[in-house]
């Protein structure tokens, strides 16, 4: 079981980077709840940044953006990437059962991107998504899907391991996945 705390405007990363963005519709004690892609200012590199969600979570979106949690990182000019810590007791508890019930696994590039951001290596935001059967956890091969993002739309079928084709990006971006079904 993992307990993570929601981030809000004003929360800081371990290097002092501060969340300056936040939701216009979701608040905790009058503080806007932070989401992936929300603005951050880093006093170390003196550059704006954005929140990048990393690690396990129960999907929770506000206006299409994943809600940010303690342990998420700041994509700014600093390497390794600064890690956010919440200042308030507003938590989400993720059990093994929650993770097992999620239909879509973590994108395969997730671990590599996180490792690069924490190691000082140049960040790569290239990702692909693996579809898994909800009951058995087995890969869903030959399922038709559509990926929609800033760089356009791509349609295809998952490979024998249930993976989509990679989405290439030079920055953090949101990609929407639409699944049509096996052989569709």
From TrEMBL:
It comes from the Bacteria. Pfam families: PAAR_motif (PF05488). This is PAAR domain-containing protein.
């Amino acid at each position: 079981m993992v307990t993570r705390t929601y981030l809000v405007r004003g929360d800081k990363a371990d290097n002092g980077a501060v969340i300056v963005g936040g939701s216009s519709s979701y608040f905790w004690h009058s503080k806007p709840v932070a989401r992936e892609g929300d603005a951050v200012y880093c006093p170390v590199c003196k550059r704006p940044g954005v929140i990048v969600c990393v690690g396990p979570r129960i999907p929770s979106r506000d206006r299409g953006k994943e809600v940010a949690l303690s342990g998420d990182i700041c994509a700014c000019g600093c390497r390794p990437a600064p890690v956010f810590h919440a200042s308030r007791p507003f938590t989400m508890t993720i059990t093994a059962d929650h993770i097992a019930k999620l239909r879509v696994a973590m994108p395969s590039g997730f671990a590599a991107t996180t490792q690069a951001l924490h190691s000082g290596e140049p960040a790569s935001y290239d990702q692909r998504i693996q579809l898994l059967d909800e009951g058995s956890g087995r890969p869903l091969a030959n399922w038709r899907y559509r990926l929609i993002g800033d760089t356009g739309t791509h349609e295809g079928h998952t490979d024998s391991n249930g993976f989509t084709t990679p989405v290439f990006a030079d920055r953090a971006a949101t990609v929407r996945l639409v699944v049509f079904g096996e052989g569709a």
